[in-house]
Write a structure and sequence with these properties.
By secondary structure, this protein is an alpha+beta fold. It is built from 7 helices and 8 strands. An 8-stranded mixed β-sheet has the order 4-3-2-1-5-8-7-6, with helices on both faces. Helix 1 packs across helix 7, helix 3 packs across helix 5 and helix 5 packs across helix 7. The radius of gyration is 18 Å and the shape is globular. The protein starts with 20 loop residues before the first helix and ends in a 6-residue tail after the last helix. This is Class II aldolase/adducin N-terminal domain-containing protein. It holds the Pfam family Aldolase_II.
Protein backbone atom coordinates (compact mmCIF):
# COMPACT_ATOMS: atom_id res chain seq x y z
CA UNK A 1 0.00 0.00 0.00
CA UNK A 2 3.02 2.29 0.38
CA UNK A 3 5.44 3.45 -2.27
CA UNK A 4 8.95 4.80 -1.77
CA UNK A 5 9.79 8.07 -3.42
CA UNK A 6 12.40 7.68 -6.14
CA UNK A 7 16.02 8.37 -5.31
CA UNK A 8 16.33 12.09 -4.63
CA UNK A 9 18.56 14.45 -6.52
CA UNK A 10 21.76 15.60 -4.86
CA UNK A 11 20.56 17.69 -1.90
CA UNK A 12 21.62 21.16 -0.95
CA UNK A 13 23.72 21.37 2.18
CA UNK A 14 21.75 22.23 5.32
CA UNK A 15 23.94 24.60 7.23
CA UNK A 16 23.44 24.77 10.99
CA UNK A 17 24.09 28.50 10.86
CA UNK A 18 20.92 28.90 8.77
CA UNK A 19 18.72 27.47 11.47
CA UNK A 20 17.84 27.88 15.12
CA UNK A 21 19.31 24.57 16.23
CA UNK A 22 17.37 24.51 19.51
CA UNK A 23 14.04 25.17 17.77
CA UNK A 24 14.70 22.48 15.18
CA UNK A 25 15.75 20.00 17.86
CA UNK A 26 12.60 20.72 19.86
CA UNK A 27 10.44 20.29 16.77
CA UNK A 28 12.07 16.91 16.11
CA UNK A 29 11.38 15.78 19.69
CA UNK A 30 7.79 17.02 19.64
CA UNK A 31 7.04 15.35 16.31
CA UNK A 32 8.69 12.08 17.37
CA UNK A 33 6.54 12.10 20.51
CA UNK A 34 3.41 12.36 18.37
CA UNK A 35 4.48 9.37 16.28
CA UNK A 36 5.16 7.26 19.37
CA UNK A 37 1.87 8.10 21.09
CA UNK A 38 -0.09 7.65 17.87
CA UNK A 39 1.36 4.14 17.67
CA UNK A 40 0.36 3.41 21.25
CA UNK A 41 -3.20 4.53 20.56
CA UNK A 42 -3.56 2.57 17.31
CA UNK A 43 -3.77 5.64 15.11
CA UNK A 44 -1.12 4.32 12.69
CA UNK A 45 -1.31 1.87 9.81
CA UNK A 46 1.74 -0.29 9.23
CA UNK A 47 4.53 1.77 7.70
CA UNK A 48 1.98 4.02 6.00
CA UNK A 49 0.60 7.40 7.17
CA UNK A 50 2.69 10.45 7.84
CA UNK A 51 3.14 13.51 10.02
CA UNK A 52 5.09 16.55 8.88
CA UNK A 53 6.12 19.94 10.19
CA UNK A 54 7.72 22.93 8.51
CA UNK A 55 11.29 23.37 9.75
CA UNK A 56 11.43 26.34 12.14
CA UNK A 57 12.96 29.28 10.34
CA UNK A 58 12.77 27.62 6.92
CA UNK A 59 9.41 27.75 5.16
CA UNK A 60 10.89 25.83 2.22
CA UNK A 61 11.74 22.68 4.21
CA UNK A 62 9.74 20.20 6.25
CA UNK A 63 10.30 17.33 8.65
CA UNK A 64 8.63 14.03 7.78
CA UNK A 65 8.95 10.35 8.68
CA UNK A 66 11.11 8.10 6.44
CA UNK A 67 9.62 5.29 4.40
CA UNK A 68 9.83 1.82 5.91
CA UNK A 69 9.71 2.74 9.59
CA UNK A 70 6.68 2.20 11.81
CA UNK A 71 5.43 5.05 13.98
CA UNK A 72 6.66 3.17 17.05
CA UNK A 73 10.22 3.23 15.67
CA UNK A 74 10.44 6.94 14.97
CA UNK A 75 13.01 8.96 16.89
CA UNK A 76 13.88 12.65 16.75
CA UNK A 77 17.01 12.02 14.70
CA UNK A 78 15.33 9.57 12.32
CA UNK A 79 13.05 12.24 10.87
CA UNK A 80 13.97 13.52 7.42
CA UNK A 81 14.30 17.10 6.29
CA UNK A 82 12.94 17.48 2.75
CA UNK A 83 12.45 20.36 0.37
CA UNK A 84 9.44 20.80 -1.92
CA UNK A 85 11.24 19.33 -4.92
CA UNK A 86 11.75 15.80 -3.64
CA UNK A 87 15.23 16.29 -2.25
CA UNK A 88 16.22 14.86 1.13
CA UNK A 89 18.25 17.62 2.73
CA UNK A 90 19.07 15.80 5.96
CA UNK A 91 18.57 12.27 7.23
CA UNK A 92 18.86 8.72 5.95
CA UNK A 93 16.30 7.25 3.59
CA UNK A 94 13.47 8.79 1.58
CA UNK A 95 9.87 9.69 2.38
CA UNK A 96 7.04 7.45 1.28
CA UNK A 97 5.87 8.77 -2.10
CA UNK A 98 2.38 9.82 -1.05
CA UNK A 99 3.89 11.46 2.04
CA UNK A 100 5.95 13.68 -0.20
CA UNK A 101 3.28 14.53 -2.74
CA UNK A 102 0.63 15.24 -0.09
CA UNK A 103 2.69 17.05 2.52
CA UNK A 104 5.00 19.05 0.25
CA UNK A 105 2.03 20.45 -1.65
CA UNK A 106 0.02 21.15 1.49
CA UNK A 107 2.89 23.06 3.10
CA UNK A 108 3.65 24.89 -0.15
CA UNK A 109 0.07 25.87 -0.94
CA UNK A 110 -1.21 26.40 2.61
CA UNK A 111 1.43 28.39 4.55
CA UNK A 112 -0.76 28.40 7.67
CA UNK A 113 -0.43 24.59 7.76
CA UNK A 114 2.85 24.39 9.63
CA UNK A 115 1.90 20.89 10.80
CA UNK A 116 0.10 18.34 8.64
CA UNK A 117 -0.93 14.98 10.11
CA UNK A 118 -2.42 12.37 7.77
CA UNK A 119 -3.72 9.05 9.09
CA UNK A 120 -6.10 6.24 8.35
CA UNK A 121 -7.03 6.04 12.05
CA UNK A 122 -9.91 3.58 12.28
CA UNK A 123 -12.87 5.45 13.70
CA UNK A 124 -12.46 8.72 11.81
CA UNK A 125 -11.69 6.78 8.63
CA UNK A 126 -14.81 4.66 9.15
CA UNK A 127 -16.91 7.84 9.21
CA UNK A 128 -15.13 9.01 6.05
CA UNK A 129 -16.42 5.87 4.31
CA UNK A 130 -20.07 6.76 4.86
CA UNK A 131 -22.39 8.82 2.69
CA UNK A 132 -23.18 12.22 4.11
CA UNK A 133 -21.47 14.33 6.79
CA UNK A 134 -18.98 12.28 8.83
CA UNK A 135 -19.46 13.99 12.20
CA UNK A 136 -22.88 14.46 13.73
CA UNK A 137 -22.70 17.23 16.32
CA UNK A 138 -24.07 15.04 19.08
CA UNK A 139 -21.09 14.68 21.42
CA UNK A 140 -19.16 17.32 23.33
CA UNK A 141 -15.79 16.20 21.96
CA UNK A 142 -17.11 16.61 18.42
CA UNK A 143 -18.01 20.24 19.14
CA UNK A 144 -14.29 21.05 19.27
CA UNK A 145 -14.45 20.74 15.49
CA UNK A 146 -17.72 22.57 14.84
CA UNK A 147 -17.24 24.76 11.77
CA UNK A 148 -13.65 23.57 11.30
CA UNK A 149 -14.16 20.50 9.12
CA UNK A 150 -14.40 19.92 5.42
CA UNK A 151 -15.23 16.82 3.40
CA UNK A 152 -13.15 16.00 0.32
CA UNK A 153 -15.54 13.96 -1.82
CA UNK A 154 -13.18 13.55 -4.79
CA UNK A 155 -11.11 10.50 -3.94
CA UNK A 156 -8.41 10.22 -6.62
CA UNK A 157 -6.52 7.07 -5.68
CA UNK A 158 -2.96 7.18 -4.40
CA UNK A 159 -1.35 10.61 -4.35
CA UNK A 160 1.63 9.80 -6.58
CA UNK A 161 2.04 13.13 -8.36
CA UNK A 162 1.93 16.85 -7.70
CA UNK A 163 -1.49 17.17 -9.36
CA UNK A 164 -3.19 15.01 -6.74
CA UNK A 165 -1.18 16.69 -3.99
CA UNK A 166 -2.33 20.10 -5.22
CA UNK A 167 -5.94 18.88 -5.39
CA UNK A 168 -5.77 17.68 -1.78
CA UNK A 169 -4.17 20.95 -0.67
CA UNK A 170 -6.85 22.97 -2.45
CA UNK A 171 -9.59 20.88 -0.85
CA UNK A 172 -8.51 22.00 2.61
CA UNK A 173 -9.75 25.53 2.09
CA UNK A 174 -10.00 27.27 5.46
CA UNK A 175 -10.60 24.04 7.37
CA UNK A 176 -8.32 22.46 9.96
CA UNK A 177 -9.73 18.95 9.58
CA UNK A 178 -10.42 17.24 6.27
CA UNK A 179 -12.35 14.01 6.01
CA UNK A 180 -10.95 12.46 2.83
CA UNK A 181 -13.80 10.27 1.59
CA UNK A 182 -12.82 6.64 0.96
CA UNK A 183 -9.35 7.41 2.30
CA UNK A 184 -8.68 8.86 5.78
CA UNK A 185 -8.23 12.23 7.46
CA UNK A 186 -5.88 15.19 7.31
CA UNK A 187 -5.36 17.53 10.25
CA UNK A 188 -3.45 20.78 9.79
CA UNK A 189 -2.39 23.29 12.41
CA UNK A 190 -0.08 26.11 13.30
CA UNK A 191 1.94 23.98 15.70
CA UNK A 192 2.74 20.34 16.36
CA UNK A 193 0.85 20.49 19.65
CA UNK A 194 -2.32 21.84 18.05
CA UNK A 195 -2.26 19.26 15.26
CA UNK A 196 -1.72 16.46 17.75
CA UNK A 197 -4.51 17.66 20.05
CA UNK A 198 -6.94 17.83 17.13
CA UNK A 199 -5.92 14.42 15.81
CA UNK A 200 -6.39 12.80 19.21
CA UNK A 201 -9.79 14.34 19.94
CA UNK A 202 -11.01 13.79 16.40
CA UNK A 203 -10.51 10.06 16.78
CA UNK A 204 -12.16 10.09 20.21
CA UNK A 205 -15.15 12.01 18.84
CA UNK A 206 -15.41 9.57 15.93
CA UNK A 207 -15.14 6.58 18.26
CA UNK A 208 -17.99 7.60 20.56
CA UNK A 209 -20.16 8.53 17.58
CA UNK A 210 -19.53 5.12 16.01
CA UNK A 211 -20.42 3.44 19.29
CA UNK A 212 -23.63 5.46 19.58
CA UNK A 213 -24.56 4.68 15.98
CA UNK A 214 -24.00 0.97 16.65
CA UNK A 215 -26.89 0.96 19.12
CA UNK A 216 -29.28 1.61 16.26
CA UNK A 217 -30.93 4.40 18.22
CA UNK A 218 -31.36 7.92 16.87
CA UNK A 219 -28.55 10.36 17.66
CA UNK A 220 -29.50 13.60 19.38
CA UNK A 221 -27.53 16.48 17.81
CA UNK A 222 -26.77 19.62 19.79
CA UNK A 223 -28.74 22.62 18.43
CA UNK A 224 -26.57 24.76 16.10
CA UNK A 225 -26.51 27.87 18.30
CA UNK A 226 -25.45 25.86 21.34
CA UNK A 227 -22.90 23.93 19.27
CA UNK A 228 -21.36 27.19 18.05
CA UNK A 229 -21.27 28.65 21.56
CA UNK A 230 -19.68 25.54 23.01
CA UNK A 231 -17.10 25.50 20.23
CA UNK A 232 -16.21 29.12 21.01
CA UNK A 233 -15.80 28.25 24.69
CA UNK A 234 -13.48 25.39 23.82
CA UNK A 235 -11.35 27.47 21.46
CA UNK A 236 -10.56 30.05 24.15
CA UNK A 237 -8.14 27.69 25.87
CA UNK A 238 -7.37 25.31 23.02
CA UNK A 239 -3.83 26.45 22.33
CA UNK A 240 -2.71 26.17 25.95
CA UNK A 241 -4.54 22.89 26.38
CA UNK A 242 -2.83 21.48 23.28
CA UNK A 243 0.59 22.49 24.58
CA UNK A 244 -0.08 20.88 27.96
CA UNK A 245 -1.43 17.76 26.24
CA UNK A 246 1.79 17.35 24.28
CA UNK A 247 3.88 18.06 27.38
CA UNK A 248 2.08 15.22 29.19
CA UNK A 249 2.83 12.85 26.33
CA UNK A 250 6.51 13.74 26.39
CA UNK A 251 6.66 13.12 30.16
CA UNK A 252 5.10 9.69 29.73
CA UNK A 253 7.41 8.78 26.86
CA UNK A 254 10.47 10.15 28.68
CA UNK A 255 9.81 7.61 31.42
CA UNK A 256 8.78 4.66 29.28
CA UNK A 257 10.35 5.17 25.81
CA UNK A 258 13.16 7.70 26.32
CA UNK A 259 14.84 6.65 23.08
CA UNK A 260 12.24 8.67 21.14
CA UNK A 261 14.28 11.80 21.91
CA UNK A 262 17.48 10.44 20.39
Amino acid sequence: MAHALGAPAAPAILRNAELDADAVRQARIDLAACFRMAARLGLHEGICNHFSFVVPGRDDLFLVNPYGWAFSEITASRLLVCDFHGNVIAGEGVPEATAFFIHARVHLNKPRAKAAFHTHMPNATALAMLEGPPLVWAGQSALKFYGRTLVDEEYGGLALDEKEGDRIAASIGDADIVFMKNHGVMVVGGSIAEAWDDLYYLERAAEVQRMAMATGRTLKPVPPELAARTYAQMREGDRDSARLHLDSIKRILSREEPEFMH
